[in-house]
């Protein structure tokens, strides 16, 4: 099972949502994202938020289309996206995709990037991705990882996201590395590209943010 969560980020930053309508996909809307899903002909199974970004008419429309709507007070400890993500993790899917998580307020975007770390810290096998019209982001723990060439997102960047990354090795890339120490301030691994159909990257310590981007 895959759970797709759409938040209320700018619609201009969204990919084509209907292209993520595989079998066994569950859609979840967050705040304004619920109305956006319905506008694209997608009926979410769950809706979360304080709904301060929709008007009363839109909220009533949401109630008529979504079976389970969880409304929270605007003054709360967890942002709406985190509430939806917590529910999604409890369902134990193999993957969670976050849409509408970029392009708006920087504090919301950085908080959403931090949410990518939850499965790694909790030692869960669930992969969480942030996807917009130009980028795909995810975080990985130490080990050896394969990555396939994608002509639509040919640029690949690696950023330490929690302390330094140790012994980073890149094979099959235009700019290879061998057992490099990557401090948290480094931009060494920005905008690399695969030269093989499939490459590998490995490291022994730290957490690495992987970003795949279009031109």
Automatic annotation (TrEMBL):
<feature type="domain" description="Thiamin pyrophosphokinase thiamin-binding">
    <location>
        <begin position="143"/>
        <end position="209"/>
    </location>
</feature>
<dbReference type="Pfam" id="PF04265">
    <property type="entry name" value="TPK_B1_binding"/>
</dbReference>
<dbReference type="GO" id="GO:0005524">
    <property type="term" value="F:ATP binding"/>
</dbReference>
<protein>
    <recommendedName>
        <fullName>Thiamine diphosphokinase</fullName>
        <ecNumber>2.7.6.2</ecNumber>
    </recommendedName>
</protein>
<dbReference type="GO" id="GO:0004788">
    <property type="term" value="F:thiamine diphosphokinase activity"/>
</dbReference>
<dbReference type="GO" id="GO:0006772">
    <property type="term" value="P:thiamine metabolic process"/>
</dbReference>
<dbReference type="GO" id="GO:0016301">
    <property type="term" value="F:kinase activity"/>
</dbReference>
<dbReference type="GO" id="GO:0009229">
    <property type="term" value="P:thiamine diphosphate biosynthetic process"/>
</dbReference>
<dbReference type="InterPro" id="IPR036371">
    <property type="entry name" value="TPK_B1-bd_sf"/>
</dbReference>
<dbReference type="InterPro" id="IPR036759">
    <property type="entry name" value="TPK_catalytic_sf"/>
</dbReference>
<dbReference type="InterPro" id="IPR007373">
    <property type="entry name" value="Thiamin_PyroPKinase_B1-bd"/>
</dbReference>
<keyword id="KW-0067">ATP-binding</keyword>
<keyword id="KW-0547">Nucleotide-binding</keyword>
<keyword id="KW-0808">Transferase</keyword>
<dbReference type="GO" id="GO:0030975">
    <property type="term" value="F:thiamine binding"/>
</dbReference>
<dbReference type="InterPro" id="IPR006282">
    <property type="entry name" value="Thi_PPkinase"/>
</dbReference>
<dbReference type="InterPro" id="IPR053149">
    <property type="entry name" value="TPK"/>
</dbReference>
<dbReference type="Pfam" id="PF04263">
    <property type="entry name" value="TPK_catalytic"/>
</dbReference>
<keyword id="KW-0418">Kinase</keyword>
<dbReference type="InterPro" id="IPR007371">
    <property type="entry name" value="TPK_catalytic"/>
</dbReference>
